Structures are given as structure tokens and as C-alpha cells.
């Protein structure tokens, strides 16, 4: 599995670098591929701008089909992201309980040991 390191994966991604810094928070459709590292960048960009994302939002708006795996990569890179169990109603009126909502608690990555990542 590819590990995520923002410095290694953004140097050749054009605007992806700008889209994922806290000082230049904007939504940019400049993510050209759907690699795991670019999926992490898309989620990180959304979190910088909006503060939280649900599994459903990641799938519908960012084309990230396995957001939990990308969140784990971001946590391993030092981003403090917590998970809250949420309720969601689909456009068909169906209620879903226990949908994951991921909340970015700190925009700058921190050094973590392995025991802190699995939260």
C-alpha cells in the first residue's frame, strides 16, 4: 500500500500543492488522476476548506470510493482527524445510521507514533 507524504506527492502535481496549504484554501478541480495519493490530497483540500467530510461526500463529490483508507493514510502522515458516527438521509429519503464523518482537528501535521494512528 502506498503511504501518503504530502511533500513527496505534491511536488509534481501543479496546483495540488496550492490547494492543500492552509493559507490558500480553495476548491480546485486540478486533481488529474485518482491515485491513492491524489485521493488523499482531494480529501485534505476538502477538510482544509470545510473542516469535515462524510463517507458519502467523499464518494459523491471527490470520487473517493474508500475514504476510510485515505483517512488512515492522512493520519499516518500526522493529520489529526477524528471520526464521528452520523446520520444521513439519501436523496430517496432513506435514513442511514452510522455514516462516518471525519473532522480535521488540526491543519498542520504532527509527529505521531503508531499507537496514535488507529483512533
**β-strand amount:** 15-25%
Shape: globular
Distance from first to last alpha carbon: 19 Å
Residue runs with pLDDT of under 50 for 5 or more positions? 9-27
Spatial arrangement of strands, main beta sheet = 1-3-2
Compute the number of strand runs.
3
Overall pLDDT level: 80
Which class of secondary structure composition applies to the elements? alpha+beta
| Helix run count | 6
State the order of secondary-structure elements, H for helix, E for strand: HHHEHHEEH
Question: How many structurally independent domains?
Answer: 1
Helical content (DSSP H or I, runs of 4+): 25-40%
Alpha-carbon Rg, integer? 14 Å
Largest sheet: 3 strands, antiparallel
Task: Give a structural overview.
A three-stranded antiparallel β-sheet has the order 1-3-2. The protein is globular and about 40 Å long. 27% of the residues are buried. It has one domain. By secondary structure, the chain is α+β, with helices and mostly antiparallel strands. Helix 3 crosses helix 5.
Please write out the topology.
Blueprint: H1 6-10, H2 16-19, H3 36-50, E1 52-54, H4 55-62, H5 67-76, E2 80-89, E3 95-106, H6 114-117
Antiparallel strand pairs: 1-3, 2-3
Summary?
This protein is α+β, with helices and mostly antiparallel strands. The chain is 39% helix and 21% strand.
Offer a few descriptive terms.
3-stranded antiparallel β-sheet, alpha+beta, 3 strands
